[in-house]
């Protein structure tokens, strides 16, 4: 399996509860390396553009409000099979369904406020990384 990059967000519910380090440790323990990272506070419009794929879903407005409610940490994670590995470490979208030991099982508060985002495929990883980072900011 080739070295791969994926995009990750530590969401507002987690940054507010001072869980940034605990969540990064989960990624690092799984063999993923942080090759870019920044803490930023999105506007609702920026959150809406990022999550545009969900704009017809009933939870879209609430999701955009939430993502703009406090700072996030945007990151690029690198490793073998990084896209799938990140999804595995994150756990299921709904923390009630997330496997024990996953980030969402341990930290998520609800299906909406679920602590992390992770790209779901190579194409989305590429688009999402480019939305937040320039090539110069990917430093290995
Ligand atoms: O984040 P993930 O890829 O696991 O799930 P998604 O289906 O792509 O949904 C994106 C985000 O929308 C989730 O992580 C939740 O924050 C939110 N969501 C929600 O608020 N209510 C739902 N029923 C499903 C998703
Ligand atoms: Mg998704």
Automatic annotation (TrEMBL):
Enzyme Commission designation: 2.7.4.6
Its gene name is ndk
Q: Name one GO cellular component term.
A: cytoplasm
What is the name of this protein? Nucleoside diphosphate kinase
> Which GO MF terms are attached to this record?
ATP binding; metal ion binding; nucleoside diphosphate kinase activity
The organism is Sulfitobacter aestuariivivens
Its cofactor is:
Mg(2+)
What family does the database annotate?
A: Belongs to the NDK family.
Where in or outside the cell it occurs: the entry states: Cytoplasm
- Which Gene Ontology terms describe the biological processes this protein takes part in? CTP biosynthetic process; GTP biosynthetic process; UTP biosynthetic process
